[in-house]
């Protein structure tokens, strides 16, 4: 199906390309056998580097064909000189390959160093942000404490201003009971009064609820309509037939009542 073809494509399930068996005729050296070391994923499909390697192998085979024969002593010096030149050429090519590889490794190293610097910068920025947040929190707490101390000292100064000479004032009971914001109605905890300390004195204590004798007396004083209930079966709201079915007119009346409501 389309879904299966999408999840499991041929490219994901494809194995390495098939290489059939071959027979080499005697006396022939096919050029294709020089590429037997290349396999799928390691040189195949061929790229620019593989093409350059094939071209170098062709040039080397052509150079080997031009070498003088070994049967003449006068050609040995020429052959040795040609082989030394080829060896220097191979060494120069190898050095160039090493330099190219070093350049690639240097670029990779630069990229890794750049990434590490970016990660370090992000870490430093996060650390500085956390440090700044902690300082801001300490600053807010300090400001809150200063404001609290300011309000406290302001109340003390107002109290001293109301009694500059330090004279003892007589308690005005009428003024305290007429002002519902006074200490009589709304005492403050900072002056040493905690209203929750004596909360049990506000609990309602009733003889008829807390004792068994009171409950018996309360039950005897109640009328019979409270202790002995009489239930009446409700009358049906709809007109029914003898068999128990509701008439159509009654159903229509209920529907009209619901619509009206």
UniProtKB/TrEMBL annotation:
Record keywords: Cell projection, Cytoplasm, Cytoskeleton
Top-level taxon in the UniProt lineage: Eukaryota
Subcellular location field: Cytoplasm, Cytoskeleton, Cilium axoneme
Cellular component aspect of the GO annotation: axoneme
Domain CFAP91 residues, every copy: 4-156
Family: Belongs to the CFAP91 family.
PANTHER family: CILIA- AND FLAGELLA-ASSOCIATED PROTEIN 91
Protein name, as recorded: Cilia- and flagella-associated protein 91
Organism: Ardeotis kori
Gene responsible for this protein: Maats1_0
